[in-house]
Amino acid sequence: MSEKNREVKRSARERLQQERVADAAREKRRRTLIMAATVAGVLGLVGVVGVIAANVKKNRGSEAAAAVSAPSGVNGKDDLAIPVGAADAPSTLTVYEDFRCPACSQFENGFRGVIHELERSGELKVEYHLATIIDGNMGGTGSLRAANAAACAQDAGKFAPYHDLLYANQPAETDDAFAQNGKLLELAGKVNGLESAPGFRQCVEKGEHDRWVEKAAEAFRTGGFSGTPTVLLNGEAVFPKKGGEDITPANLKKWVQEANKGKKPGTATPTTPASIPAGAPQRGQRGPDEAPAADSASGSATEPQAQPGTLPAA
């Protein structure tokens, strides 16, 4: 073999060796890139999982912060009823009402005396469900704010007298005075021991029961009711009539006594005021901005009755 041929073969072997070295270097770089990409992907997935976990934790925290805070002692389906009277009373009056509703004020101010009389005797307990339809129909937040304040009064064991006082001092339907916490606290000062009750002012100002009120209002809107007040005696509608009889204080008392025939009155301690609170009118009297009350003896109204608060058409 000539020197020239040997040189050619040597050069070919060197080129082959160089190519193998280059191929090995390229393979090493490729594996390094794959490994880097894999690590980055894993780290990215961990980051995404971390973000998701953080968001879930944040959402759970938000949900907890916005949890429904029900007032103490509520009962009924989903804890949406505030009870007044002996828990073991044989008859139950279920009332759906709105603190801005003029017809609700007329009902409450006209029937307050006989309802409390039946509560004190153990013949009747009342379950109040709070609605906010006037806020929706007229605008404003007075229904919500007053209902929250009443729920705060329930925490303080003063729901019944404060409830009565709100209706005795109900502003005109177009006047959203109850939207002002200051007005609600001012009225609370007329109920013995309420304004100074621990936590009451804070409860009112922070709207601690707003979500509960909204839940109760939603249950009313979706419950098949036509308006406020809706009044049921042992599940039967009695406002404005029971069968062919108009509701009057005398008739309400008669209906309760008929329903209770042969049954013992409740003996549990009634959660009702011993007397009508200061500032609330007695039967036959009218409070400021109050619709005329039905006469307790005759059961008749001396002026046209206010129209019930109605839900907007779907």
Task: Give the number of helices.
Answer: 9
The value of Rg in angstroms is 36 Å
Low-confidence stretches: 42-54, 56-65, 281-304
Terminus-to-terminus distance: 106 Å
Percent of residues in helices: 40-55%
Strand content: 5-15%
Mean pLDDT reading: 80
Please name the fourth-level CATH homologous superfamily of the largest domain. Glutaredoxin
Specify the overall morphology.
elongated
CATH topology of the largest domain: Glutaredoxin
CATH architecture name of the largest domain: 3-Layer(aba) Sandwich
Number of strands: 9
Class per helix and strand makeup: alpha+beta
Highest-level CATH class of the largest domain = Alpha Beta
Sheet with the most strands: spatial strand order: 1-3-2-5-6
Instruction: Profile the largest sheet.
Output: 5 strands, mixed
Series of secondary-structure elements, N-terminal to C-terminal? HEEHEHHHHHHEEEEEHE
Structural domains: how many: 2
Structure description:
This protein has 314 residues and is α+β, with helices and mostly antiparallel strands. The protein has two domains: 1-67; 77-310, Glutaredoxin (3-Layer(aba) Sandwich), CATH 3.40.30.10. Helix content is 48%, strand content 10%. It contains nine helices and nine strands. The protein has helices spanning 3-65, 102-120, 133-138, 142-155, 159-168, 181-188, 200-206, 210-221, 249-259; strands at 82-84, 91-97, 124-130, 227-228, 230-233, 236-237, 241-242, 245-246, 309-310. The strands form three sheets. It has a five-stranded mixed β-sheet. A two-stranded antiparallel ribbon has the order 4-9. Strand 2, helix 2 and strand 3 form a beta-alpha-beta unit. The longest helix has 63 residues, at 3-65. The protein is elongated and about 135 Å long. The N and C termini lie far apart (106 Å). The relative contact order is 0.16.
